[in-house]
């Protein structure tokens, strides 16, 4: 079965972006093997705000990937390059049963919260940047039910980035 | 010179306690070597709220350690077991120059913010628990200046706890 994996960069204090959406603290690392990781996915899944932020910054290109945007307010006819899904649960439940590569939940923390509550997130994978921000957009939007995790892999790079992979042990407590 | 090390357990999303001060999600690990780590310190440094939480839960025993409580409001005569320091910066600057073991900054995020801004924190060391809380008391109280870090060591335990140690690269940007 295809897995839905929430895979993002975070600060050590758990933010996926700064208070104003800043991502300049996220560094790339040649050791990271980003394209190898990308090749494990064929679908990108984002929330409305993340999608609008991607469009505003021009970072919408995910080669060879289908993009799903979870939103009750966006209109499909205004978003010709993506598939708008107003009700993600049945769409994702069906998609997981079909053959294909994994589904990359790219953010944000609000979509993650609702999908985790519905038991629809299989893994949480974070590239921990060596910085503390003090404020920003959280990895998991609160208030939320606790999400218990099981560590499956950890790698540290010379740049100081630590790549931690977890399975979601109990998605809906 | 003695080092001031902010050494705490955090959730993967960067909280040192739950929204109501909960710490039940912090597990101990026999592999962790807690007493060996404790032996590197002879002084514990906490903020007022952390100290009051320690007293409320009865967790005030730090054998063979002197406890400093940073507070402008607590009265020394009401706190006979600790040393109240109303103005931490000169006290800590002087203390770092004296011989002795390291100083354990045990929390919380507000004291860490003010000490980091003053260039008085040498290291940040976190035991990352395999859980997401979604809300709670942050590792670094916001809003704050960014704290850049340099990874110095990482260890993963069978329990899924990841122990990350960083030097503070640039305490006061």
Short account of what is shown:
The structure is a homodimer of 173-residue chains. Helix content of chain A is 20%, strand content 36%.
What does this structure look like?
The structure is a homodimer of 173-residue chains. With 173 residues, the first copy, chain A, is an alpha/beta fold. The first copy, chain A, has one domain (4-16, 32-170): Dihydrofolate Reductase, subunit A (3-Layer(aba) Sandwich), CATH 3.40.430. Chain A has four helices and eleven strands. In chain A, the strands form two sheets. An eight-stranded mixed beta sheet of chain A has the order 5-4-3-6-1-7-11-10. In chain A, strands 2-9 form a two-stranded antiparallel sheet. In chain A, helix 2 links the parallel strand 3 (41-47) and strand 4. The two termini of chain A are 23 Å apart. At the A-B interface, strand 7, strand 8, strand 10 and strand 11 of A face strand 7, strand 8, strand 10 and strand 11 of B. Strand 8 (131-132) of chain A pairs antiparallel with strand 10 of chain B, so a sheet runs across the interface.
List keywords for this structure.
homodimer, 173 residues, alpha/beta, Dihydrofolate Reductase, subunit A, 8-stranded mixed beta sheet, two-stranded antiparallel ribbon, 4 helices, 11 strands, 36% strand, globular
């Amino acid at each position: 079965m295809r897995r839905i994996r929430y895979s993002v960069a975070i600060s050590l204090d758990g933010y996926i972006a700064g208070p104003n959406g800043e991502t300049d603290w996220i560094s790339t690392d040649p050791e990271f093997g980003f394209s190898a990781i990308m090749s494990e996915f064929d679908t990108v899944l984002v929330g409305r705000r993340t999608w609008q932020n991607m469009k505003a910054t021009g970072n919408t290109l995910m080669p060879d990937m289908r993009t799903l945007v979870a939103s009750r307010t966006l209109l499909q006819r205004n978003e010709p390059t993506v598939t708008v899904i107003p009700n993600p649960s049945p769409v994702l439940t069906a998609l997981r049963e079909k053959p294909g590569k994994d589904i990359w939940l790219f953010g944000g923390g609000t979509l993650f919260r609702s999908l985790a509550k519905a038991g629809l997130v299989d893994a949480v994978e974070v590239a921990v940047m060596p910085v503390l921000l003090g404020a920003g957009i959280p990895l998991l939007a609160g208030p939320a039910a606790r999400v218990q995790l099981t560590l499956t892999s950890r790698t540290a790079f010379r740049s100081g980035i630590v790549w931690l992979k977890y399975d979601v042990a109990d998605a809906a407590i």
